[in-house]
Amino acid sequence: MVSYYHFSRMNKMLPDPGTWEEYVETFKAGKVLWGSWYDHVKGWWVAKDQHRILYLFYEDMKEDPKREIEKILKFLEKDISEEILNKIVYHTSFDVMKQNPMANYTTWPTSIMDHSISPFMRKGMPEDWKNDFTVAQNEEFDKDYQNKMAGSTLTFRTEI
Predict the structure, then answer these.
(1) Does the pLDDT of residue 12 top 80, yes or no?
(2) 45-89, pLDDT tens digit by residue?
(3) Which of 10, 68, 129, 159 supports an S-S bond with 117, CB 3.0-4.6 Å?
(4) Which domain holds residue 24?
(5) Which DSSP string corresponds to 52-97?
(6) Structurally, how many domains does the chain consist of?
(7) Is 154 a member of any domain?
(8) Residue 156 falls within a domain, yes or no?
(9) Taking each helix axis from N to C terminus, what angle separates 20-28 and 135-148, rounded to the nearest 10 degrees?
(10) Is residue 157 situated within a structural domain?
(11) What is d(CA 133, CA 140) in angstroms, rounded to the nearest whole number?
């Protein structure tokens, strides 16, 4: 939610998300541009059992990027050398991609993506949500999450 909020702030092609407090309510109500996040992730989680879909988690990628890239390679049935694997790990790291204009959208005009509001690639830290949510917002979000994700086997980590 935090990433989506900051992306919506800087991406001038999207509706203004309002204040953080307003956005929390908009997000929980599923009134964001592409609809309910809950329905989206639950739908793909179910679809993975009927279709060849690889589900990855950001916290896992941050914790052990090489392991997660190896999962992708296995899923794609590809073998590569250790040297190439290490180059992929390096070039797909958050810090390297944040500096890469081909990944960070800094070449786009500010009329489309205004990096003075928020960079496209902000912090890349899984636990950074704690800096945006108040304790009350977090408690309310946790209740909403439990309600809307009830019955799903999908679980997320919020810390590494």
Answers:
(1) yes
(2) 999 999 999 999 999 999 999 999 999 999 999 999 999 999 999
(3) 10
(4) 2-148
(5) ------HHHHHH-HHHHHHHHHHHTT----HHHHHHHHHHTSHHHH
(6) 1
(7) no
(8) no
(9) 10
(10) no
(11) 10
> Which is nearest to 145 in space by CA: 54, 20, 42, 4?
42
Please give the average per-residue pLDDT across 146-153, as a whole number.
Answer: 95
Angle at 113 between CA 9 and CA 34, to 5 degrees: 55
At 52, which CATH number?
Answer: 3.40.50.300
- 11 forms beta bridges with 113
Torsion of CA 49, 54, 55, 59, to 10 degrees: 150
Q: What is residue 22's three-state secondary structure?
A: helix
Predicted TM-score (pTM) of the model is 0.84
Residues in CB range of 36: below 8 A, 6 or more apart? 30, 148
- Expressed in angstroms, the distance from the first to the final Cα of the chain is 18
